[in-house]
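Practice problem: predict the structure.
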Amino acid sequence: MKRTLIAAALAIAAISSAHAASIAGLKNTGIGASGSLDSNYKLTAASSDSTITATKPTISFDNQWPITPWMTNASSSASKWITPTASQSQSFDASSAGTYTYSLSFDLTGYNAASAAFTGRLAADNSVTVLLNNHNIGSATGFTDWTSFAASSNFVAGVNKLDFVVSNWAQNGGNPTGLRVEFASSSVAAAVPEPETYAMLLSGMALMGFVARRRKAA
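Answer:
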């Protein structure tokens, strides 16, 4: 019986120790071939002087304007710029600012959402606000350097949504827009089992102990 109780305690301890994992759905921008669509992000655009029909952004080419003045897509980079159309140099928003929302979803089903956290960095032409499930978690302005962002709260069980809301300021000509995001770290703990799970485990262990005693007595 003593051995059975020890085994039960060890099993409960193993279940209770929530193993930390990275958040699989957090994807950098521009994963894939230049000129192809970034399948990880959904694009919603409200441009003042053109209609954007694409629902997925396009991954930029390394050696085409506006790279530079945008930060370069070095071959060793973990991310690339993404843009609203296949023409990354296309000029938008001549008369008033346009809004381009790049959305990324990730699923925390089976994990403890309250334990989730991540860090990253981003840049945008011209500015960007980051929303996690509609909560503001950061902002940045500029395309020549990185700005850090992070979250350790406002996660929910199941599907979560990150929105990168880019504002492209009005300019009559030579006015492209884009976004670049890199995640540096992320973690989330496995969900803690319900009390019923512990009860079932203990009942099973007790039954095993009873059977073992009967066999020993026989």
